[in-house]
Design goal:
Layout lengths: L1 E5 L4 H13 L4 E6 L19 E5 L5 H10 L4 E4 L6 H6 L1 H23 L7 E7 L23 H20 L3 E6 L1 E3 L8 H10 L4 E4 L5 E6 H14 L5 E4 L4 E3 H15 L11 E4 L14 H7 L7 H14 L1 H7 L3 H10 L3
Parallel strand pairs: 1-2, 1-4, 2-3, 4-5, 5-6, 6-10, 7-9, 8-12
Antiparallel strand pairs: 9-11
The structure holds nicotinamide-adenine-dinucleotide and thymidine-5'-diphosphate (TYD).
Length: 349
Amino acid sequence: MHILITGGAGFIGSHVVRHFLNHYPSYTISNLDSLTYAGNLANLSDVEERQNYRFVKGDITDGDFLMRLFEEHQFDGVIHLAAESHVDRSIVNPTAFVVTNVMGTVNLLNAAKASWQSDYEGKKFYHISTDEVYGSLGSGGLFTEETPYDPHSPYSASKASSDHFVRAWHDTFGLPVVISNCSNNYGSFQFPEKLIPLFINNILHNKPLPVYGKGENIRDWLWVVDHAQAIDLIYHQGKTGETYNIGGHNEWSNIDLIRLLCRIMDTKLSRAAGESEKLVTYVTDRAGHDLRYAIDSSKLQRELGWVPSITFEKGLELTVEWYLSNGEWLNNVTSGSYQHYYEKMYGVR
Ligand code: NAD
Ligand code: TYD
């Protein structure tokens, strides 16, 4: 079994690569990543020497390169995670999201189709997507696999579009695809532009915590390791042509989450209770900010027996501990161009 994982040097991708190398030593795992600001080979330093692991530096927006790669290697499966993934960046530069998330996915579909079309037997194209394609919920209800798509940000619109193309390649060309739509992930190796690692880093450096709007938006948080386990199950047992929602029934308003994070940081840094929370600063809301995401993952639980392994309180504590004991990783990724990003996004250094 030879699986091509795209975006394997990113946050979730690195956990998926590690999971497959640890659980399936007989598989060959090729990790294709162009190493954007979000891709970092240090995320895989513990597994990079494995005999059955290969890194390929390459860009999914280069269709000819993908055709050659699929000619050189007989991949049995693709797990596609490579993407531009941050909503705020999609507001600043939407086109990059269309190019990578839509065109990149179509290039990959074309390459898989060209390589497999004589025989789809035993092949699988697994597209990793997000719950953000479903839009925004009010105070009640959950996203199911039947919820109509209603994306609002350029990021979620690009992911929704890529999901439609994946389904079209299944319905039109018979490509054996499967899609999953997951809620917000957290855990080790997440780039500190997303809420949790950004705020851990800011608390560490006594910098303001920029809370958008009133902090009332709700997200459904899942430990990245549990996402990787769900991806394993869906890759091996998911039904071709189907979609699976992944989420841990774990809704938190941003401000409640931030208060919990501040309490954990105070304890871990031996600061007085309430010290970190003083850094909370309410700032202008994100444009088009979705109010609430919440996932109904009962299909995945019922059909494939998946259950999240850890409570949010425990997972968040483990995550904080990881960032505190990996200061070198954090310093490396927040030096250089990160400073320019931060200044542009938040108006301060
Ligand atoms: P990330 O930004 O941490 O990693 C993305 C990776 O893709 C990076 O390694 C980057 O170098 C690579 N990449 C970007 N453009 C590329 C290109 N043109 N060619 C090759 N590689 C390229 O993202 P993440 O948070 O790990 O998300 C991974 C996937 O999971 C994405 O498809 C995202 O939409 C989806 N997802 C993320 C979340 C979340 O909470 N982070 C939730 C649900 C779904
Ligand atoms: P984020 O981690 O960017 O994930 P997403 O937008 O994909 O859900 O943001 C999570 C929530 O935190 C979202 O409601 C926006 C909010 N947020 C802030 O309040 N301040 C910030 O600096 C960031 C990055 C996010």
